[in-house]
Amino acid sequence: MADLRRLATRKRRRASTIVDQNVCFTGTDTEDGDSMVPETPPSRSWSRSQSRGSSRSTWTNQATTETGTETSAIPSTETSVEPSVELTEPFTSRSTSAQSDTLSPRTKFIIGLDYGTTFSSVSYIKFDSARPPPTLFGAQICSITDWPGVDSRARNIPEVPSESWYLGDRFYWGYGARQGYAKLLLPGNQKETRGPREELRRTLVRARKDETEAIKDYLRQILKYSKEFLTEREELSEECEVELVFCVPAGWPAKAIRTMQEILLDIAHELNIGTLATPFVLNEPEAAAAYILEACSGRKRLSTGEVFMVCDAGGGTVDAITYRVCQQHPFRVEEVVPPTGSNCGSSYANQTLKHQAIEKIKSTAYESLKGPSFEYIIEHDIMTEFEYKIKRGFNPADGLDGDEVIVVHGLERNERLGFGHNTMRIKSLNGISKLIRQQISAAAAKGLTVETILLVGGFSAAPILRSHIETEFEALKIIYPPKGLDSAVTVSHGAVFRAFNKSDGPKRIVQSNFGFLQLELYSTRQPAHRGVSPIFNAIDGKKYGLVLSKQQQFRTRNWQVFKMEEELVIHQKIWVSDFDNAQNHYRVNAPCNKGAEVFGILQIDLEPVKNEGLLELRSGPEGMFYEIHYELAMEVDGRNLAVKLFYPPGGMCRAQTQLCIAAAFIPGTE
Q1: How many CB atoms lie within 10 A of CB 559?
Q2: Which stretches are annotated as coiled coil (predicted)?
Q3: Which of 185, 378, 519, 609 is deepest in the core (most CB within 10 A)?
Q4: What is the C-alpha to C-alpha distance for residues 404 and 497, in angstroms, rounded to an integer?
Q5: What per-residue confidence (pLDDT) applies to 301?
Q6: Domain with CATH 3.30.420.40 in the chain
């Protein structure tokens, strides 16, 4: 899998959308599968809009349907056609229903997933879609429990370890696994995750898996068990409408969100989890804030206009983001300071201890130990004891007198190998303080004062973190989740709560560029063509330059050339780029279009059109050929992107497909 953009890159991009056209004119297949001139990089037509970030849904990418819809002719603004990308002015798309069915199923499930670095949880609500409850309260939201492999004394625990274990041909997950932190593979290479990341990659190499496969293997089991749970206890069936809600860390790049969306939709389709609605994406801090500050009874209220910070401290990632309250009912916030995040959660204390323990034990004759393996000693005797008995209850306010003893079976006593003054420095706390200070400073630079910190996430319940935050920021008001509320489900419950009422959310802004690959006649009068060697097409005897072409609309025309004996099948690829510098008239591999990739395909067989007598043969250097001109259209429909092909241009809609672009919008967008 190609590296995803670094999580640290949180630069806000200008709104843009790419429209790009696919070319098939020599019958030579490229790596992307387009029929194009040999050894020629494709180019696209980009379209910019106030919607940034596109997303690819594998299970809908090939869903092409033929229709007979008439459309009025739209004048073409292009002069020459060549693989290019079309740019349009920013726009705000209107929200429309994502459901294509005339009648939706009566029973609806909203299922919220919090895929954490160390633990995950799934929450849900079931209701009659024809008569939904007027108000949703936190107590109405339920959790998936009784996870496979959990200790019988803890059957009602709603969280499951985000861990996978590949042992030969067998796969273990959750409570039955020991290898974790797969989520860290998504955002890309970061300095602070280098140790766990390299350890993960070595594991994946041994298991012959890539990053996406590892995450998909785990989430497949999560959703498979969730489906079984809901089928048995809540009568989930194929006829039920299911809306998946997944949460992402604040500041995640569009590509990471898109990858997560693809994984979940592929799995949901594979498992046939009800009738799928368009998924909903939400930032983890916003989900937690919405749940704690509105859904929970007895909550602490924040007034309209108040500026507050959410610090979501989980096992792996810690995110800090500053909001201003826009309205109280429903509770809505606006971001006033871009999010900052880092991988400095509580699991890094575990990493430190694990490293020290390995070094200490390796200096003994551990290979002669009888009984459990060395790996079992580290994971079961040491890490389990530290995670569940020592770390979670440790409070610096109680003092540091005495020793914490971890029993290692079979290890001979050797005081020389003690842990040195019984202390271990936890860098995670300093990293969290740094994130909070960055947010406070950024808010102050805008003339805003942060008065309150909402501390959420699994790590937020640890006395050591609470004591640290209260000491470091004693002038600020600290809000914790209400007593009795399991911090493990704050985000997944918040995802369900927020998805139930999506109104008054962020403006509908897409964060990526979408495009078609197009064909342009080579012209030295076009600046983008200069310095590029033209390609001679022997079929029609013309010169082409594979570049991008700017258009100021979401409709564009393209053509493809086919030899008379070729199959008349167009494979129109839809491209996506997460960068602002995508430009028209330039090649796909030009520096300005670096990072663009295919995310969907519209396929159409034109043999029926040929049989209608609408295609005309032409004569070229290599014999007779068809030059087929057609029109392409893109339209944002809710959180989907409709792509249509019209032939002849301005005439009948011959094929269309719908791609899910929920991940393209700012998280929380309706």
Answers
A1: 18
A2: none
A3: 519
A4: 41
A5: 76
A6: 300-481
Per this entry, what is the length of the chain? 670
Q: Is the pLDDT assigned to residue 41 strictly greater than 70? A: no
Q: What is the pLDDT of residue 250?
A: 77
Look at strands 452-456 and 477-479 and give their pairing: parallel
Distance separating alpha carbons of residues 607 and 292, to the nearest angstrom? 59
What is the three-class DSSP state of 524? coil
Q: What is the pLDDT of residue 74?
A: 29
Q: By C-alpha distance, which of 509, 506, 465, 513 is closest to 487?
A: 465
Q: Is 210 helix (H, G, I), strand (E, B) or coil?
A: coil
CA 372 to chain centroid: 40
pLDDT at 1 over 70: no
Give all strands of the β-sheet with 513-517 in edge-to-edge order: 44-47, 513-517, 569-577, 597-605
In CATH, the architecture of 114-283 is: 2-Layer Sandwich (3.30)
536 pLDDT higher than 60: no
Is 3.40.50.460 the CATH classification of the domain at 300-481? no
Across residues 288-315, what is the average pLDDT? 82
Any idea of the CA torsion for 93, 97, 98, 99, to the nearest 10 degrees? Answer: -160
Q: How confident is the model at residue 522 (pLDDT cuts 50, 70, 90)?
A: low
Average pLDDT for 574-597: 74
Phi and psi angles of residue 583, each rounded to the nearest 5 degrees, phi first: -130, 155
pLDDT of residue 86: 35
Nearest residue to 43 via CA among 73, 91, 81: 81
Three-state secondary-structure class, residue 651: coil
- The mean of the pLDDT values for the chain is 71
Residue 31 DSSP class: T
The answer for residues whose C-beta is within 8 angstroms of residue 598's C-beta and 6 or more apart is 32, 573, 574, 575, 576
Residue 424 CB: number of other CB atoms within 10 A?
13
